[in-house]
Inverse folding.
């Protein structure tokens, strides 16, 4: 059975998330450790505490790491470089949101699934909530359908080696701004919700990596084609 | 004129950084409160106090054998005591600076190479680039200015002064930028108009280096 390490800024947050997830069938049997908070009990993360957690949990089936945000992610990555390579090889850092990912990850681990399967389930942890709320996580109202206006959509693959990081995302946002009208994007590969193409934060949230498929939707078919062409050409980066 | 970064002036550098961080913790925290989680000053002050204890900076000598050893100890201590993203970022910076077969004291070009390694480490750790409103906006121009100063015949002291000046210019240039990394990126456009706290503390680090080798 795999083990799960929770990396958080806050020990109470990590403990509560573990207790919530452990209520699920079989999840309570999974070995879990927490690396959270500063030594004085404040908010923060400590890469050496993550190292200790990874070493404590190390087992032949592997360890899945769920983290909250910011320094938790950086500390987890740093810890992975600091532990023995034989330990690091059996560790996966999950990009899933902490609570949803932990529930999905622990339930899957409790069923005896392998590390990759648990990581995949954790990454899909948001799907149920998104489906329930209509996949419109930023709360934007769909107006074009209501007006009876035609909505066009197309799917395009990301070709930038580092994905939609700051520079290409900014290029996309400024192009979408110039095209005008409502243009929405979603990451088909990760099953993300829709975001506005003119919001840099929104576009960054997509987490679109090389090879991911992104769906572009707009009321104006010309705007869809223009953006698809731009994205397919690497957003001026290639 | 100082030609080499010795263990003694490396200790002076880190002590100077500790002192300016302690003095300016409130300023850093105020900058961070405007666009982030408001803990940069207090986190850095806690980290540098721990570094000071670990390296016995107030004594004449410490438990470190040479400059590389000192840099690594600073990095390891920051990694586990800062708490925020500055921990892994500054930790990586110092650990990478101290990596490799370094001589007892660093020549001007050794120190330039170490700064460049530190920059590469921070870029890899934070996955940020120039213009993302991060400490890289102070550090990258500093590394570049240091190289240029050496290339035009400068020594350790003059190149470090040029690096510190470039860091301050880079720090000020973060004000109009929109943050694309870290907690501030959640603010989007609202992060513009504020000086980046990470670039501010990085400029302090390079100014402390310039003071130490002057």
């Amino acid at each position: 059975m795999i083990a799960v390490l929770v990396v958080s800024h806050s020990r109470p947050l990590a403990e509560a998330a573990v207790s919530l997830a452990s209520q699920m069938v079989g999840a309570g049997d999974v070995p879990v450790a927490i690396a959270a908070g500063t030594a004085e009990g404040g908010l923060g993360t400590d890469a050496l505490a993550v190292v200790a957690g990874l070493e404590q949990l190390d087992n032949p089936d592997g360890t899945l790491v769920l983290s909250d945000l910011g320094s938790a992610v950086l500390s987890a990555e740093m810890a992975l470089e600091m532990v023995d390579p034989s330990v690091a090889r059996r560790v996966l850092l999950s990009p899933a949101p902490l609570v949803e990912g932990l529930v999905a990850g622990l339930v899957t681990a409790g069923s005896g699934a392998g590390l990759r399967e648990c990581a995949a389930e954790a990454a899909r942890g948001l799907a149920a909530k998104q489906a329930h709320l209509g996949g419109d996580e930023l709360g934007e109202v769909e107006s074009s359908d209501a007006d009876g206006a035609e909505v066009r959509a197309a799917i395009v693959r990301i070709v930038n080696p580092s994905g939609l990081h700051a520079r290409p995302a900014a290029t996309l946002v400024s192009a979408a701004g110039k095209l005008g009208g409502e243009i929405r994007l979603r990451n088909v590969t990760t099953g993300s919700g829709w975001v506005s193409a003119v919001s840099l934060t929104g576009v960054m949230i997509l987490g679109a990596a090389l090879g991911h498929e992104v769906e572009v939707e707009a009321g104006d078919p010309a705007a869809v084609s223009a953006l698809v062409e731009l994205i397919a050409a690497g957003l001026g980066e290639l | 004129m100082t030609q080499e970064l010795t263990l003694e002036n490396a200790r002076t550098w880190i002590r100077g950084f500790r002192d300016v961080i302690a003095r300016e913790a409130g300023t850093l925290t105020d900058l961070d409160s405007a666009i982030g989680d408001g803990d940069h000053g207090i986190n850095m002050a806690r980290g540098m106090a721990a570094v000071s204890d670990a390296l016995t900076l107030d004594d004449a000598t410490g438990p470190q054998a040479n400059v590389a050893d000192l840099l690594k100890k600073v990095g390891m201590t920051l990694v586990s005591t800062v708490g925020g993203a500055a921990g892994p970022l500054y930790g990586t910076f110092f650990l990478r600076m101290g990596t490799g077969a370094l001589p007892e004291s660093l020549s001007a070009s050794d120190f330039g190479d170490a700064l460049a390694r530190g920059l590469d480490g921070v870029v890899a750790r934070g996955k940020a680039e120039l213009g993302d409103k991060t400490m890289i906006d102070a550090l990258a121009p500093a590394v570049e200015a240091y190289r240029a100063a050496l290339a035009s015949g400068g020594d350790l002291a003059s190149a470090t002064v040029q690096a510190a000046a470039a860091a301050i210019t880079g720090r000020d240039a973060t004000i109009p930028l929109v943050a694309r990394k870290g907690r501030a990126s959640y603010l989007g456009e609202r992060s513009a108009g504020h000086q980046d706290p990470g670039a501010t503390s990085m400029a302090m680090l390079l100014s402390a280096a310039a003071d130490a080798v002057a």
